[in-house]
Amino acid sequence: MSRFGQTYNQLPLIKAPKIHTDLLWDLSILFVGLAVVYFICVFFYRNRISARAGREKQRKRELSPMVSEFLFYDDEASKDEKSNYVNLKIEIRQLLKDDFNRKILSEVLLDLRKDLAGDTQKRLFKLYQDLGLHNDAFEQLKSWRWERVSKAIRDLTQMQVAEAYTFATKFINDKRPTIRKQAEIAVVTLKPEGINYFLDTTKYKISEWQQLKLLDVLRNEEDYQPPRFKAWLTSTNRHVVLFALRLIKFYNQNDADAALIELVKHKNSQIKAEAIGCITEFYIVAALPTLKLVFWKSSTDIKIAILGAIGSLGKESDIEFLQLIEKKEANFSVRSKAHSSINAIMPDSIMPSKGLMKSTNYSIPDDIVLKDEDEDIAEEKITEPIAVEPEVKLAEPIIVEIEEKATAEIEVEAEEVDADSHSPKENQEEAIIKPEEAIHTEIKPEVMKENQMPTNEEKSEPQIEAGDSVADETLSFDFLPLVVQAADEAKMTATDEEDMTVEPKGVVVVYEEVTPQEGASEIELNEMTVKYEEVVPEDDANIHTKEVTFEIKEEELAFLPIVTDFIEESPLEKNTQDQPKDVFLLQDIEVQFEEVQITIQKPSKVLAPDFSEFSTPEILETQVIYDIVDAPVDKISDKHINDLTDPYFLSNLSESPQEDTMDTESNVNLKSLQSYNDMEPQDEQKFKKIIKDLIDFNEQKQAKKTSKSVKDWPLLQFGDEFVDTSSVSQVDEPVQDESAIEAHAEDEDRVQEEVIVTTPNIPNAMLGDEILDEIVLYKENTEESRMQLLDDIAEMGDYRELPLLNELLVNEKYKTVKDRVKRLIEQFNEGDEQPKQDVQLKPFNVFEDLFRTCDTEAKLILMDEIVAVGDAAEIDFLEGLLEDEEKEISNKAARILEELKAKLALANQNENRELASTDNDQAEVAEMEVLIEEETLAEYDSLMEELQIQPPQTSGIFDLSFELTEPLTAMTNGSRVADKPAEQTVHQESILGQLYAKIIDKLNG
Amino acid sequence: MDSGISNIVLDYINIVFFLFTLVLFTMFTTMAYFSTRNSIHYRNKNSFTDLSKVMASPLAPSITIIAPAYNEGLTIVENIRSLMSLRYVNYEVMVVNDGSKDDTLQKMIDAYDLVKIEQEIDPNWKSKPIRGIYKSPHKAFSKLTVIDKENGGKSDALNTGMALSSNTYVGCIDVDCLLLPDALLHVVKSFFQRSEKKVIAVGGVIRVANSCVIDGGKLEEIRLPKSWLAKFQLLEYTRSFILGRMAWGRIDSLLIISGAFGFFDREIALEVGGYDTGTVGEDMEIVFKMRRHMHDQKIPYTIEYIPDPLCWTEVPEDLKILINQRDRWARGNLETLFKHKDMFFNSKYGRLGLLSYPYWFFYEWLAPLLEFFGLITIILFWYLGILNWDFFFAITATVYLYSIMFSFYAILWDTYSYNEYKKTKDILTLMFCAIIEPIVFHPVVVWAAVRGNYKKLFRVKSGWGSQVRKGFAKAT
Prior knowledge:
The complex is a heterodimer. Chain A is mainly alpha-helical.
């Protein structure tokens, strides 16, 4: 035993390896240490993230308005704004020295890009490059980190840096997906031909997301002319093919029929689906055989897509194929789609055949008891397609029991009748609805909740049960309206308006004749007789016809439209059609108008009643635009005037029968006025012309003092305003009509009487802007209006009106007006004097303004600039700076003050010299100018080289040179500079050079 | 001899526990590493994404959000309103009233003026009878479809929704969940972003909405839950979603998509028969099925995981409800693992068979049982006087401290990535929860898991249990 134990103990395999608890304790300590580190890190990162976010927010808040200033800066801004602008430039340059600021500024610009468009967006892009932020992005392209490269490409793309295109093309097949995707977007965005390059060169797959983004880029391109994408349907990259298909569909490029048909056979189901989509979209009927061919080996989705396409493109010959699918296909969705496709090709060719009740089951039982709906549902088996019944659950837990005895008459409310749930026989019964027949109708006890309105489907849904085939044989009456009135309504009384609602089920109404009782030439319709045959199906086999005659009074038909097709052309109508031609004869007629009467001729027409039509809103809008005045004028002349004033002559009467509807009761011959907006362009022009002429006429009359006789005053001599040149051209054309000219010749002699034109009361809505403008213009041109204007000027004007008055004096043709203008000019010249500036304001000092917002460094720079460009106005300002808190500024101010004073003294001396001697050599001056310019430029270039500064690009936003060159130019151009001794000029030049260097130094860090 | 053998046995038991712990540590540490990398990668990649582009695109796919509702009368109207206000164009909200006993349906009808419509579904599709399909005639509610059916459980309701939907993708969510407005845009991007593989499903993080302020279906303010039970769950969710699933997503071995926020390729989901109505772990089971299906078809596929906090839900604040929930999860886990047992260490399924499944088997299903029986063993050994106190204390301290360290790391990463709980007090509270959770909360979870396994193994009849919703706090 002990031996065994000894042996056992000695077996090394059985002895368990020792786990040193120290190791576990060490691990514990390690975990504690890590936990402490994490604890610290949590707060460290939290604070850092919060602080950073706060800093970014703050900096964005600072930078955003600055950027906006730049973007919306106007070159013609006020002095104040310009100074602000300069200040901003200095400030932003300072800020850009910091990487963090550059990053934030870049973000601000990128954010702004989304909110801007048009020129402002272009300025933003320019600003991005002017600030050199694009150089940062280009630098980032060299990074090994994918996220940096991607971000750089994205930034360059979004800021439309066209130079980035070449770089982007290099990354288009990069193995790092994010970079590659950004490069793809860049290529497509930066150049219109980028999409071609991308589709040609990409080797990788294009994800759906990427396609979506690329399409978004293309969609938002302005004036984009897409290439013919069918070129890429043969690509070896199936993703390119897929994308090309989508682009073809999006851009409706329907010139790739053959390729699309071939692609239906593609292995890839996505390509297949897209190709089918295109085929359906472009209605490629030739694809049908291919679609049928590939159908059986396709996936469910593709099958459904194919069936959809066949439904759209197919013909009756394809139904056989669809029926085959219906029989053989196992998938419910596919079968269902096949049904719908058959119905799409031949509507209603497949009707519900399952689950329908026998017609005998529809007979109403003696007692109708409403059963709880849940019971029915529980009994249903789901082996049948689940047809959701439109039964609405009872709102309240009250079961209503309805007991109804079969009675001879059943009044069925339209809402309660379910047209489809009844067999044709029942429909016929409903149609005939004879009181002696007992109708047994199973009324489905639907109890509707108050707030629950049934849908159409619900209304028409049959209450069906299995095992009946009667419905298969029935015709669909879906299109028919529901019967509102039952049996008694079948016997209509002719005088009842409701009789117009003809029971559609089983009743065939044949309108035989509609005979106006009075002659066709007479307009008034007092009575007419309408006969129709009522074909009443007595049963399935027999139809008996009975004639119903009823009389319709004219008033009852007033709402009816007039069918002009049947109208025989009456002499009156003929005249009416000729009216437009006659209108233009007026220009040759001397007419004395007393009143303008609008007489709308009522054409004689045979009214064919159409029971389905009712009076239209246009009729209700009938307006009378002119006062109706009885005019004792000759018929023909009257007609002419009517033609002129009546806008209705413009349209062919036979084209607008409904507008002939008249108020027969009052028997006033009024024609509904065609809406101004509804007029045809040529009519509109004519109408405008007439309105204008009328207004012109009236205005002219007023100008000549109201009620003045215009006897023997031809219309053509009314003045330029009346017959304007534009209207002449319109008028000339119809005058060529010989018959019209003849008619006019006859009329001419007859029109002798005075005509007083009443002021037309034209609704504003009828006057287009054009006309109103013309009215205003015309008003302004009358003598009276001019005088009125001058009165106003005399009353309220002052010397500031002189320019206007002078202008009037030149242009005015009326002598009286001219005289008045002259008097006013004299009056203003004598009487008024320009107010003198009695408030002495402190002169504006641009430097003072800039100093308010500058930091110390910028102030020092600006002080240097004062020496260069300042004058005596700056002395006060500099003296003020002597007491500045900052010693640096006060010291410099003292120095600058001295320099400025010296400069000004020198300038004074030069001025004095200039007065003394005027014979300086101009050639010497020019030479000096060139010299200074060259030296300055040389110094500038050397500085630029030394500081390695790239000259600014074309944009002027950050071009500071104008500030420096301006004083220089001023000095060189001015004669004073020419008089300066060479030594002084050189000294000044060196100061300028220093200033230049310092500013550039400052701005570029 | 006896004492020698027992010592050896005890030593081996110690070794087993030690190794188990060591492997657990290793796996958790590896998961932390993967999830960190995945999070960074995700963040970098998504900094270039402008999700709004999908809004007006003609290529935007159609989505149906299916939300089963059972006795949700208290919150249903507000929840639907929230679902209908998502930022996406081409989607439909399908609420399946799973035979609610309360006034859920009536409230929906009243609020959205619903009327019954007619629609056919595949007669071969197995689901409980449908009482009615409702749509609103108002254009504003045109996205909404309500299906009223007899009670058949969540899976049955989801299946009905899938069958009636005609859209490309279906989202299966809990109706009481709050989706952020951009949720669907993220989902679409996840489905669309792959070119090499087909994305068959997309899952996401579930965040705890207890005590958060929600107004008009929008999350106005994120607050730490007041209830301690909810706080513990918040910590647990953070650990699980931020570190666990993120890591599994990184290696494309995600085996579960939360039932509260899961989107599927409808065609594939229907091909595998939809959700299994015979299990309470249907969300895990459908993922197993779809993965297997794709493996069998040899089609390259993947399941995407969105770490952004897009879905917010209420967690149980009642201990009993919590235990019931975890009990159900344990049963679901066991049912699914048992149903797909042939995948266990089956190289045919690649990482799925060799890594994911074993992990779920050992550390999701077996771990609670081991913990429970380990505790019993310790008590027994203590009672027998053979407990190795040194080892016991050392390993307990190691596991405990690792647990705290891991929770701290989860909090750190959550702060770093999303920084949702900004208040110092909130962070400290969460850390305190991490310290006491292994002693206070974890035993409850273990007990619930043991109970669930017991019920399943001994066939004790049990259902879904129920949860009483309090409703989200309203903004004042």
